[in-house]
Amino acid sequence: MDRLSEIGKISIESPDKIVMLVLDGLGGLPHPDTGETELETARTPNMDNLAHRSVCGLLEPISPGFTPGSGPGHLALFGYDPFEFTIGRGILEALGIDYPMEAGDIAARGNFCTADDKGIIVDRRAGRISTEKAAELCDILTAIPLEGAQALITPVRGHRFLLVLRGSNLGPHLSDSDPGRSGLKPERVRATDEASRHAATLVNTWLAKAAELLRDEHPANMALLRGFSQHPDLPSMQDVYKLRSAAIATYPMYRGLAKLVGMDVIPVAIDSTIEEQIEVLRRNFNDYSFFFIHFKPTDAAGEDGDFEAKVRAIESVDAALPKLLDINPEVIMITGDHSTPAILKSHSWHPVPFLLYSKWCRTDETSKFSERGCARGALGRMSTLDIMPLGMANALKLAKYGA
User: How far, in Å, CA of 129 to CA of 138, rounded?
Assistant: First the structure.
């Protein structure tokens, strides 16, 4: 069965509004001193009160045991099966910064990193250098020539950059040079099919020359690449759900994800607070039927291993929640795309708390929006793919299925 096609057959329009608030990397693990996760530690009276009037559960972002990247995690939130729609990080970055991709281009997401004198990565994010510093480094790397192709590089945000490989007959099926953690040397990029062998050779040449040019820089003295991809073809949320959808996201990659599924991206400053994002929602509330609000600081703090910063980030969202409730959307969903426990300093496979509020939902006994609280919720443990149909149903946007 083509799940999206079946949903498309019964999707209908209604005046009700849906807001999906995504706290990136929301889920956590207990602090060894307290036995409580970041979300359980945070003071969240507003989310707890809303949970008491909602139905709750835990979401499996992809499948039990799978640790999702941000791309697959968000695709699942929007109802697109990550096993069916495989999308590399590179194209998401390119779309997020409105980079003028051409047919046949290959995009990769890059990190400037710090390596020791043996070439071992000691910091995958080079101390989170500024965007201005990354732009200087990108200028240095524009001098790298490739035979029969161009390597186009541009800064994205902080230590992140975009590399676009442009030329003839270049296949995108390439492995990452980024090993995904510190303490290792970068991987050699490999082609995973015959058509991508030439592209792999070009990328490895570029990486070797980049390492030479960056050798004396500090702290960013090496570049890592991952998520090689070209522009995919996905059905839009308008076609599937009959929704006029909008994204309110500060980070380029999440804007790219939103564009990929046909959302309008409402401009917000890259340093916007959650209060400012909610104000953007208020100003545009009458123009759309579905809103995706993305909040990044929870994930960044988790990846930095900063438990307290993640707690503070969660509390900042809770403090802003009354402003969202005042707008009075008929359906509110609060969750994350994956877990990023500070104790692991990385994404993880752990299920993510989920809350759905509407006047049509059957409330449960959940009184605390947390991992333990949602584990006792009436929705139980469910696939992230199911939340869009559930939100649609609670907004009276799904007709009866079958006779």
Answer: 13
Report the alpha-carbon angle 96-98-99, nearest 5: 110
Q: What is the three-class DSSP state of 203?
A: helix
269 SS3 class: coil
Tell me the pLDDT tens digit for each residue of 346-375.
999 999 999 999 999 999 999 999 999 999
Residues 161-218 pLDDT 10s: 999 999 998 999 999 999 988 999 999 999 999 999 999 999 999 999 999 999 999 9
SS3 string, 62-106, reads CCCCCCCCHHHHHHHHCCCCCCCCCCCHHHHHHHHCCCCCCCCCE
Q: Is residue 400 part of a domain?
A: no
CA 60 to chain centre: 15
Same domain as 238, residue 225: no
Please give the residue range of the domain that contains residue 365: 3-87+233-394
118 and 196 share one domain? yes
Those residues with Cβ within 8 angstroms of residue 97's Cβ, 6 or more apart along the chain or in another chain? 154, 156, 162, 252, 256
Going from the C-alpha of 203 to that of each of 62, 70, 184, 191, 211, the distances in angstroms are 30, 24, 19, 10, 12
Q: Are 286 and 277 in contact (CB under 8 A)?
A: no
Global pTM reads 0.83
Side chain identity at residue 246, one-letter code: A
